[in-house]
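Q: Please design a sequence for this.
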């Protein structure tokens, strides 16, 4: 299948149009016309080579909303015309204990990311959602509920599941006290989801400049980490902290905010972290943990949860040819919304 996307040809080059071929459908494949593609901070890190050398040319994108245009002969869950999504992975071994437990992201044999990884069958590199079409095996396609706005649903497939999974793992519910570090693409979803679960949510940030935005999302307000008196008064006041900061930083200022047996979960930074003081952890049996995304079953769960609770990511819709400007803005700071590309103007024949 001939298609077109926006690709990076090196770590220091701008994204440019890229014509390429999607594979012919296998028996269990679903072919999708991509309608919207979310822009994730991890796309920027990957393209820049922050996480190691990449197989350029590289088409990023793992927040994909589209419409089924063809299915393989053994596909049973989807038919032409269905509105569907594809998230951060497109394959796994399907045989190990983790896959059987619906935790494909932790596949013992390695899950296959949506872009920049070898296809398990052919070895060719996967290419992501900054494109007009994608072909994915049925087991990794998700159903998009009718109640969701298609133009805003894409970030749920990464930012949504990345924050939903630890909220579920640590049993957040009515009365839970949750802190969210950062109010960017991940953070704003963590706030909305935790509020919908019944939690009392506090945003943690260096300043209170986004307080109105935080309150509009249901948070009680912002606790500024630079306000020493306020931080001291807030000691022991949180059960769970979701840390969405996407760069290296020190978690020490935040661990004392946890109650006894509280947990700070890192979902933002992938890579080295600054050393931290162990005293708050030892003295309160507190924990610093990490979380990736969720499995396919849990990703469908967060899509359904968002539809049920009318949770729509805060998005700015852009054209594909505006991706370099979006990357530049993301590189300058953690904006309190998600960029989503409307792919309708992208034509294979152009």
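A: Design:
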């Amino acid at each position: 299948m001939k298609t077109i996307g926006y690709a990076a040809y090196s770590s220091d080059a701008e994204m440019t149009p890229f014509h390429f071929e999607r594979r012919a459908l296998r028996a269990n494949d679903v072919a999708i016309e991509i309608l919207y593609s979310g822009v994730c901070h991890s796309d920027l890190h990957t393209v820049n080579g922050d996480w190691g050398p990449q197989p350029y040319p590289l088409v990023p994108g793992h927040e994909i909303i589209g419409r089924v245009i063809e299915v393989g002969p053994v596909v049973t869950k989807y038919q032409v015309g269905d509105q569907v999504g594809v998230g951060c992975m497109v394959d796994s071994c399907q045989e190990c204990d983790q896959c059987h437990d619906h935790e494909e992201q932790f596949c013992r044999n390695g899950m296959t990311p949506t872009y920049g990884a070898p296809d398990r069958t052919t070895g060719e590199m996967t290419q992501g959602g900054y494109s007009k079409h994608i072909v994915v095996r049925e087991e990794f396609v998700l159903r998009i509920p009718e109640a969701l706005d298609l133009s805003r649903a894409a970030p749920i497939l990464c930012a949504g599941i990345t924050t939903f999974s630890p909220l579920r793992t640590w049993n957040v519910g009515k009365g839970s006290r949750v802190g969210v570090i950062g109010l960017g693409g991940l953070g704003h979803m963590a706030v909305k989801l935790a509020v919908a679960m019944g939690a009392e949510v506090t945003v943690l940030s260096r300043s209170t400049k986004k307080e109105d935005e935080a309150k509009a999302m249901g948070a009680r307000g912002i606790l500024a980490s630079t306000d020493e008196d306020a931080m001291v008064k807030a000691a022991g006041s949180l059960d769970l902290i979701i840390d969405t900061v996407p760069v290296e930083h020190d978690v020490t200022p935040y661990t004392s905010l946890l109650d006894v047996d509280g947990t700070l979960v890192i979902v933002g930074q992938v890579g080295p972290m600054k050393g931290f003081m162990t005293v708050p952890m030892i003295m309160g049996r507190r924990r610093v943990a990490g979380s990736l995304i969720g499995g396919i079953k849990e990703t469908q769960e967060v899509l359904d949860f968002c539809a049920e609770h009318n949770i729509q990511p805060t998005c700015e819709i852009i054209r594909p040819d505006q991706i370099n400007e979006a990357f530049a803005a993301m590189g300058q700071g953690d904006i309190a919304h998600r960029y989503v590309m409307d792919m309708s103007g992208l034509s294979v024949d152009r």
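Q: Thanks. Anything notable?
A: The two ends are 15 Å apart (CA to CA). The mean pLDDT is 95.
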